[in-house]
Amino acid sequence: MNRKFKIKNQKHMHRTLPPAVAVQVSKIDSESGQVLVWTLVLLPLLLALVGLVFDGGLLWSQYRRGRWAADGAAVAAASEIDPALYASTGQMKLDPNRAAATARKFALDNNPALSLSSVTVSGGRVQVAGTLKVRPAFLGLFGVGPLELAVRGEERPAWGISREGQ
């Protein structure tokens, strides 16, 4: 583009700006500081979102670890069958006292933070229930105390081939 300059005075040279450029210059002057306002509004929201995602991942991983320990404790307890009865008759009957002790030991060995609330042996099934206390990292900064997660595990005793096709 070829722009022409108008000379009004020999000492000073002035050029005329197209109207679009003149409008943009005036908008820039009236919108100063808006980036700062947007930053002040959106930065806390972004930090809160990142913190909630982090705490959500922490809670999920702790829940999975507790669930794995409860499931493993139920499997270990379900293996405590009466060997003499099984050898003589082929029936599987759980020894409730040994099953409960095995479940508690297995749960403690695999996740010391897991507090078992019950180990139930009935009807050929073992049910293990417990809780985990988890302190969130980000929400803890705002006074949110430890959260309690409930976990369960369930298993039945099985030995060898229990049905055709296995």
Total count of domains: 1
CA-to-CA gap between the ends?
A: 84 Å
Uncertain residue segments: none
Order of helices and strands: EEHHHHEEE
Average residue pLDDT: 83
**Beta fraction of the residues?**
15-25%
Q: Biggest sheet, strands in spatial order?
A: 3-4-5
Net shape: elongated
> Helical content, roughly?
40-55%
- Total E-strand runs: 5
How is the main sheet built? 3 strands, antiparallel
Radius of gyration from the alpha-carbon trace, in angstroms: 35 Å
In DSSP terms (H or I, runs of 4 or more residues), the helix count works out at 4
* SS content category: alpha+beta
Describe the structure.
With 166 residues, the chain is α+β, with helices and mostly antiparallel strands. It has one domain (33-155). The chain contains 4 helices and 5 strands, in the order ββααααβββ. Helix 2 packs antiparallel against helix 4 (96-110). The radius of gyration is 35 Å and the shape is elongated. The termini are far apart. The relative contact order is 0.14. The model has no long low-confidence stretch (mean pLDDT 83).
Any key phrases for this structure?
two-stranded antiparallel ribbon, 48% helix, 166 residues, three-stranded antiparallel sheet, single chain, 4 helices
